[in-house]
Design goal:
Length: 377
């Protein structure tokens, strides 16, 4: 259930965020000025006009939609549903940092997952078989290393990203509708799996239809929740490129998978690469690029929440390069230079693989920049 503990507080939040002409930045400005939605709703017309609100906005705040409150209350009575506001301590800090962070988030599933390190994967709604395979491989490997995959539940690459993530970890689906409306309808079974093994998220209240203007707003949440956005396959006019450019504006990393010059669905990725996106061929490439943020996450949170036997199971699916680095390390603390010499890999390869192994709980960093295998791995 939500931390909103009374009907008046919930009603004030809903009146504020649903008022016409009141966007995310205006809500933030009003909260800074008045302190809370209940104070805003109780303010005089003159006070609200003095901070720049139009008559229609003021009327909606003072006299909210009568049907919305009971609709949201009914939705919140269902199991595992939550409504987070900007003042809720569970609100994801990564998303709170963007300039137009949504004032409220509707969540079904594990609300704690929203604060975990995430990588967004997006792309074409009509991908090639190779695009689906590559997407699932990236998602599977990244979640296997303890990260969460975030996408938009659309047909094609989005669906492949969610399915790949569910093979070895968890995933977040961001909706452009209310969470009671799954779009496309064909993804209802997938949405149920995600709710049970991750989270569904929307800034739109229950009953919201899949309107075209909702999806750019959804896309900024996908990138805003994430440390970076990976585009695996996209045409030049794909909406995924909008998500990638929004990510860049938000200060997130943008990654793209190159493809054949004969594949029209590689052209969007090539355009991103020309604009400065990072070319990636494996999950390790992404992890190496995000190393500073991920190491900070390791230092401040329990990045790997899975029990030891889960991490040990990942050894069976570990790639050959990671196995070779583990073998080269031996069982005593070792410097990266020694691993480079023993394995024959480049410094960049060893750095990326050691980070991957650290994230997946197979090695730990020691004083002096040395690494040790974790016992039993």
């Amino acid at each position: 259930m939500s931390l909103l503990c009374d009907d008046d507080t919930l009603a004030a939040w809903l009146a504020l965020v649903e008022a016409p002409g009141v966007g995310a930045r205006t809500v933030a400005k009003l909260l800074e000025h008045f302190g809370s939605p209940t104070v805003i709703q109780g303010a005089s017309i003159a006070q609200l006009a003095a901070v720049g609100l139009k008559a229609a906005s003021i009327a909606a705040i003072k006299n909210p939609q009568p049907a919305l409150l009971p609709s949201v209350q009914q939705w919140l009575c269902q199991p595992n549903t939550h409504l987070l506001t900007l003042t809720d301590p569970r609100y994801p800090p990564q998303l709170a940092d963007i300039h137009d962070a949504p004032p409220v988030l509707y969540v079904r599933g594990d609300v704690r997952l929203l604060a975990e390190p995430q990588i967004a994967i997006v792309g074409s709604r009509n991908p090639t078989p190779s695009g689906i395979e590559i997407t699932q491989e990236f998602a599977r490997h990244l979640t296997g290393y303890g990260l969460t995959i975030t996408s938009g539940l659309a047909q094609g690459i989005d669906g492949a990203a969610h399915l790949g993530a569910l093979e070895s970890g968890r995933t977040i689906a961001v909706f452009g509708t209310g969470l009671d409306r799954v779009y496309p309808a064909a993804h209802r079974p997938l949405a149920r799996r995600i709710a049970d093994n991750g989270a569904l998220v929307s800034e739109f209240p229950p009953g919201s239809e899949p309107l075209a203007q909702n999806f750019p707003r959804r896309n900024r949440l996908i990138s805003g929740l994430s440390l970076g956005v990976l585009v695996t396959e996209a045409a030049l006019k794909s909406g995924s490129l909008i998500t990638a450019r929004t990510a860049s504006e938000q200060g997130r990393e943008v990654f793209a998978v190159p493809g054949s010059i004969r594949n029209p669905l590689a052209r969007g990725c090539h355009a991103l690469l020309r604009d400065g996106a990072k070319l990636v061929e494996s999950a390790a490439d992404i992890l190496a690029e995000l190393a500073p943020q991920l190491r900070l996450a390791l230092a401040t949170t329990a990045t790997v929440d899975a029990p030891a036997e889960v991490a040990a199971d990942n050894l069976a699916g570990m790639d050959a390069e990671s196995r070779a680095v583990l073998k080269a390390m031996g069982f005593d603390p070792v410097a990266p230079d020694e691993v480079i010499e023993r394995s024959g890999f480049s410094a960049q390869q060893v750095s990326a693989i050691l980070l991957v192994l650290e994230l997946s709980g197979h090695v730990s960093s020691e004083a002096g920049g040395r690494y040790s295998r974790i016992r039993g791995r």
